[in-house]
Specification:
This protein has 279 residues and is α+β, with helices and mostly antiparallel strands. It folds into two domains: 154 residues, 3-Layer(aba) Sandwich (Rossmann fold); 102 residues, Bacterial fluorinating enzyme like (Elongation Factor Tu (Ef-tu), domain 3), CATH 2.40.30. Helix content is 20%, strand content 28%. The protein is built from six helices and 15 strands. The strands form two sheets. Strands 8, 9, 10, 11, 12, 13, 14 and 15 form an eight-stranded antiparallel beta sheet that branches. A hairpin with a 4-residue loop joins strand 4 and strand 5.
Length: 279
């Protein structure tokens, strides 16, 4: 029987760093179609930068809550494929299920959804017969996700793991000094927007100490950048800072690419500081 949420089946959503040139995503979808032919498949993205676990983890964290409750998320950004890192599946209190490598990729989303149970994917009956050392996405993760979607209990996929034993991923924390809030870029989107690790609440707490001053942002040691509400509030081709859909402070270039303009990327320093208001 096809699982349903009301009258519509919940989907199986996929995120990888495989890109769009090769056959890898198609092969995984073929495996899923062979096991769960009725599963609605949604591609979140296959454009995660190659081997960037942190970018994949952030994209997954920013996506999962917008899907139906019992969605199965198949995530593969796996530079350690074939090594001792474990293949895992996670069930959460929010209802979302996550399948992928134990390298921190699933951690931000699963932890946000409240981890209920984790298993190591070892069941021979829930993977392909011949497992490649370099393509666990096809041979282990895709079958496990498909069987979960069909209704197979997560406990049937392998032995339970303690949450403290799996790889956790912690994003860097901004540092609040007396005169500045210092953070770093953690994600660059396809438009070249530079997303930092500084959230709105932290900025509001910092700003409360400088009520008679305006806030500006600096990338590396560059010129001050105005903090605006939207991209359109800046003149064309001008840099700006704003809070994007992540709820995090980001630096953008109006109608341009901030990453290219500033020569910046993950790890680049960003700071928020207070300055006297213009008369």
């Amino acid at each position: 029987m096809m699982p349903t949420l009301g009258r519509s089946p919940f989907p199986l959503a996929i995120i990888t760093d495989f890109g769009y040139r090769d056959h890898y995503v198609g092969a995984m979808k073929g495996v899923i179609a062979s096991i769960a032919p009725d599963a609605p498949l949604i591609d979140i993205t296959h454009g995660i930068p190659a081997q960037s676990i942190i970018a994949g983890a952030i994209a997954l964290r920013e996506s999962w809550r917008y899907f139906p409750r019992r969605t199965v998320f198949l995530a593969v950004v796996d530079p350690g494929v074939g090594t001792a890192r474990a293949p895992i599946a996670i069930e959460t209190c929010a209802g979302a299920r996550f399948v992928g490598p134990d390298n921190g990729l699933l951690w931000l989303a699963a932890n946000q959804a409240a981890i209920k149970r984790i298993v190591k994917l070892t069941s021979p009956g829930h993977r392909l017969t011949n497992v490649s050392a370099t393509f666990h996405g096809r041979d282990i993760f895709a079958p496990a996700a498909a069987y979960l979607w069909r209704g197979t209990p997560i406990s049937a996929l392998g032995p339970a793991l303690d949450a403290n034993s799996v790889a956790q991923l912690d994003l860097p924390v901004p540092v609040d000094s007396a005169i500045a809030l210092r953070g770093e870029i953690i994600y660059v989107d396809g438009f070249g927007n530079l997303v930092s690790n500084i959230d709105r609440q932290t900025v509001e707490q910092f700003a409360s100490r400088f009520r008679h001053k305006s806030l500006s942002v600096r990338i590396k040691r560059g010129a001050a950048i105005r903090l605006l509400e939207t991209y359109g509030d800046a003149p064309k081709s001008a840099p700006l800072a704003t809070f994007g859909s992540f709820g995090l402070l980001e630096v953008a270039l109006r109608d341009g690419n901030a990453a290219a303009h500033f020569g910046a990327g993950p790890g680049t320093s960003v700071s928020l500081f207070a300055a006297a208001r213009r008369p």
